[in-house]
Amino acid sequence: MRQARFDGRSSMIRWTEASGAESEKAEATVFVHGLGAASTVYHAHVAAHPELSGRRMLFVDLPGHGISDRPDDFDYALESHADALAAALDAAQVRGAVVAGHSMGGAVAIVLAHRRPELVSRLVVTEGNLDRFPAPTAGSSGIASYTEEQFVRGGGFARVLEHVGPQWAATMRLSDPLALHRTAAGLVRGSEPVMREMFERARMERVYLQGELSGPLPGREGLEAAGVRVLTVPEAGHNVMFDNPGVFARAVAGRG
Fold it and tell me: Where does the record place the AB hydrolase-1 domain (predicted)?
């Protein structure tokens, strides 16, 4: 496990690395989880796929999630998450990485690529939030419909855990309720400029993965017109990496 400071209180963002690479100079792939998730749980199993062999793979937990710290004076906005992720990559001496973000993590990855383009050579977004005011089915699960007080201390967190089902709840219950609410509220606010605009304007190679079971991707034509490669993943829903890990691994490796 490795760590880096991301705020003025010495709070740490933490990550683990796969051991397949021969040195830290090997091509890096960085995995960024979604709201209420953890990177190793959602992505570590794809490290065994031969398409990703020989790479340096970092599984980063964003602030308030997994093994990273959860300061109560942090705003957990998309830009703040992106800056914390940049601090981790700086400490790991990563440049020009493949950054693969899922759901909310896709939005964070887009903001990272906008703010620190030298860190990202290729951007793979899996069912990421591209617009403000995401629907509950897009990964927010209605968390932002509660006030912060209602969610953190008024029973909202427990109700959401019951609603999301056992798979998501397994990692969400390890996240900090305050961080969850502020992060979900940050998704509703979006970024400035909005994530879709950043994604369309970015100059690095970009791929968007949409699960077949999730239905058509809104705004697909605009993404493709901007040079984004949009892939519909067969037999997959929102959690593409679980539903079709082979296609996911090939897409991350640039072979899909």
Answer: 30-133
